[in-house]
Amino acid sequence: MPLGPEYDKQIDSQFADMKNTGNRNGGSITAAQFLQRFVDDTPWAHLDIAGTAMGAPKSEINHSWGSGFAFVCWSGWSRTITKPRNS
C-alpha cells in the first residue's frame, strides 16, 4: 500500500499531536501512516487483519465471535519461511 503525505494529512489533528484514525478513504493506509511515525529506521509491516476476524461462527477452534483467522493464517505462513532448511 502506498504511504505518503496525502494520507498523512488524514491523521493530523488541530487538537493533538495526531489522531489514531483517518477517514473512510484509505483506513488501512492511515493506520500504517500512524505506525510509521514511531518506527524510525526499524523494518516493519502493517497487517490489516481485523476485518476477516469478526463475526465468525463458533467452532472447535473458535469459542467466541472473533476467529483470529488472519492471524492463524499469517502465523502458519511465517513458520514455513523461518524453518531451517535441511542441508
Describe this protein with a few key phrases.
0% strand; mainly alpha; 87 residues; 2 domains; 3 helices; single chain; 36% helix
Question: How would you characterize this protein structure?
Answer:
The chain has 87 residues and is mainly α. The chain has 2 domains: 5-39, no CATH class; 51-82, no CATH class. Helix content is 36%, strand content 0%. The protein is built from 3 helices and no strands. The chain has helices spanning 5-8, 27-39, 69-82. It is flat. The chain starts with a helix and ends in a 5-residue tail after the last helix.
The total domain count is 2
Structural class: mainly alpha
| C-alpha-based Rg, rounded | 17 Å
Task: Give the uncertain stretches in residue-range form.
Answer: none
Strand/helix succession: HHH
Shape estimate: flat
Average residue-wise pLDDT: 77
Question: How is this fold's topology laid out?
Answer:
Elements: H1 5-8, H2 27-39, H3 69-82
Brief overview:
It is built from three helices and no strands. It is 36% helix and 0% strand.
